Automatic annotation (TrEMBL):
Protein name stated in the entry: HNH endonuclease
Organism of provenance: Flavobacterium microcysteis
Keyword Hydrolase: yes
Superkingdom: Bacteria
Keyword annotations from UniProtKB, A to Z: Endonuclease, Hydrolase, Nuclease
Molecular function per GO: endonuclease activity
Length: 304
């Protein structure tokens, strides 16, 4: 039986279907899971490093999980590296600091790099071919490919952030999901909800990340959980895969309500939407092309 996937972009429908279950605004690392890892439940787990709820490079400096052990934290680091590579060149134009410095984008050939500096400046270095970057009337047109990333790892990064927000009493439904994130190469192809990443990069950037987990509140043909994550220029939405209680959705049609306010809308408070989607169920090394414009004040304009 073929399953039809239907996106619903009506702004109301998302909130008619889902309610916020947890968000980075209310997040508190569960006390009863203190130094008990929810991903491996190893009795010998160590908790020397502080695990971030959302990666530092997305702008999170304050939220930590005390239920993620050092080994798991290290293992999941690979997914975060891939998410960072996926976010490409755009986010290097923002003052979002990583651990020690602002992230740097470097093109594969090494002839082009961009990095935000402390004094509110962006330094772009170009060697040779200027085709990728053109400055016209104070507008910088940039065309560059992202660093190489593995789509499935990006999806696992997002799923892991979502899992860290799931209530402990609900976690048993995600046994398969946990198994899947525990091994980078693990790929299940029997998921009836495709691993779709809904994304939108057409809105002004966010310096502090936005993340929330929403849970279905009415019986309907939509997955039980959806996760929304915005950082830098990215506004992303996924539906949590391999939830055992979604097995009942095996019907002809699966409805995916997209979040208008945080994800799909193009212009704030206007009924215009601008999003794309990607199937992330792939272990092939991939790159995307970033093509965008930035308004720049030229140094001599500032001085005069
Ligand atoms: Zn662990």
């Amino acid at each position: 039986m073929e399953t039809k996937i239907v996106y619903v972009i009506d702004p109301e429908e998302f909130y008619e279907t889902y309610e916020i279950s947890n968000s980075m605004l209310d997040y508190v690392s569960p006390k009863d899971e203190f130094h008990i890892c929810r991903y491996c439940s190893s009795p010998n787990a160590k908790f020397k490093s502080k695990a971030h709820l959302l990666p530092e490079f997305t702008g999170n400096k304050t939220l930590f999980c005390y239920n993620e052990c050092d080994d798991c934290n290290k293992k999941f680091g690979l997914y975060e590296t891939n998410l960072s590579a996926f976010s490409g060149i755009k986010n290097t134009f923002l003052p979002i600091k990583g651990k020690n410095k602002y992230p740097k984008f470097k093109s594969k050939s090494g002839d082009f790099s961009v990095q935000f500096q402390n004094d509110n400046k962006v330094i772009a270095k170009v060697d040779g071919n200027l085709e990728c970057m053109k400055l016209e009337n104070g507008i910088l047109n940039i065309k560059a490919t992202t660093q190489t990333f593995i789509p499935l790892y990006v999806y696992k990064a997002l799923t892991k952030f979502a899992l860290s927000m799931v209530e402990k009493s609900e976690l048993h439904k995600f046994r398969k999901t946990v198994e899947w994130i525990n091994e980078p190469e693990k790929k299940f192809d029997d998921n009836f909800i495709p691993l779709l990443l809904i994304h939108n990069e057409s809105r002004p950037p966010i310096i502090k990340p936005i993340a929330f987990l929403a849970k279905r509140k009415i019986p309907c043909d939509s997955p039980q959980y959806t996760f929304i994550f915005g950082f830098g220029f990215h506004r992303l939405q996924i539906f949590l895969p391999f939830n055992s209680s979604d097995e009942q959705l095996k019907s002809e049609k699966i409805i995916l309500p997209l979040n208008f306010h945080f994800v799909t809308q193009k212009v704030k408070n206007k009924g215009e939407w601008g999003f794309g989607h990607m199937d992330m169920n792939s272990l092939n090394r991939s790159q995307l092309t970033d093509d965008f414009k930035l308004n720049f004040k030229l140094e001599n304009e500032i001085r005069s």
